[in-house]
Amino acid sequence: MRRALIAVTASAALLGSTVAVAPMTVAANPVPDVAFGMHVPQIANGEKPNATIGSIRLWDAGVAWGQVQQKKKKFWWNGMDAAIASANAQGMSITYVLGSTPKWAQKKAPKGNYPYGGTGSANPTMDVWKKWVKTVVQRYGASIDAYQIWNEANLSDFYDGSPKQMAKLTKEAYKIIRKYDPSAKVVAASSTVRLTKSYNRFFPEYLKQLKKQKWPVDAIAVHTYPPGKDTPGDRLKLLDKVVKDMKKGKVPSRIELWDTEVNYGIKGPGKTKGQKITGQQAADWTSSTFLDSILMGVDRTYWYYWYRPDGRLGIILDNAADGDFGRLGYQTAYDWMTGSFYSCTRGSKKQPNVCQLGDAINPEVVVWSNEGVGTYTVPQGATWQCNSLNQCSPTAAGTQLAIGGSPLWFGSQANYDKLLAKQQASAAARAAVQAQP
Q1: Domains of the chain with CATH codes
Q2: In the chain, is it the N or the C terminus that has fewer CB atoms within a 10 Å radius of its CB?
Q3: Is the pTM here over 0.90, yes or no?
């Protein structure tokens, strides 16, 4: 998605904006469902989220390397088999995180007890790593669509090696995956952006080392949790930093950008306070996060996570939690955007972001702001508007509206009818999944 973007200039009349002319980003392909990703910790136990999930990232789901290969020659495949079978049955594309070195493969005792009883931080020997990667890829074949090398490799809790060592692990995994499953995507080890010191130490150098290895990846990965009291607008600033660093690192245009973990209100590190995000705000922040990713050309975004609230994160997407607001925001954005060709204009403090999905005759537009409140004029031909809770009402062309952090969809009667049909199809598909034994 990101790498098929073309910069053009569009008239404000077409967009309904009060600004005369703005640069626009146009995608050559429609938004795929895999752009909407999720973590489901209980997927191996048959969890069936009441949301349309294009892609699942298997992490914190009981199937990390250290949990699967518990001894050098002993594998516990039951959990992994169950997780993959459940995700496949629900139509989810699977991204599996390969890294987290088992205890038996670490040269010295691990620090602390996280993740997974102290597994994960040590840089594995190349022989052990290659055997593990080959075993997984040969066992699961086409059931797994993408392999991520490591989780949050810039943090010592997860990885104690160097960027150069991680690039070598990446290259060797790439060769194995290409040999045994050529169609699978290879995703770089992720870096958490908000922890600036560790990010700056690892991420640019990792890109440099990947370049030396001739870019053995299909996607670069980051985690864009903003600090606990921050907003989707602050998350966008983290993405700006990543895009700038990727440009500086001369990442080839063929390589995608994935955000493999995101949420808000997260506590820590240290005394950093979190926050609980509820009600309409939960719906707005969830939907705008995926809209921001499309605006910025992030090819996949994986929300962390679908489960019951545990006090660590601001928005948990579980239909039994918090009145269903977060889930509704996610599902609404999914139904608005998937399958749509689009052209998006990034806003400012006085101008909202605008993603044009239709045309001047049958308009279909999504509008929202990251910085303050902008003014927007309902475009000609639009007769309906809907919010992030999928609450829709008639509207009138030419009406000027103040647009804040609550995303709004505007469309003609024809496009409103299409939207309703898409929503009904999504609901029917979810119901079919729930009805599975």
Answers
A1: 2-27+342-423 (no CATH), 33-337 (3.20.20.80)
A2: C
A3: yes
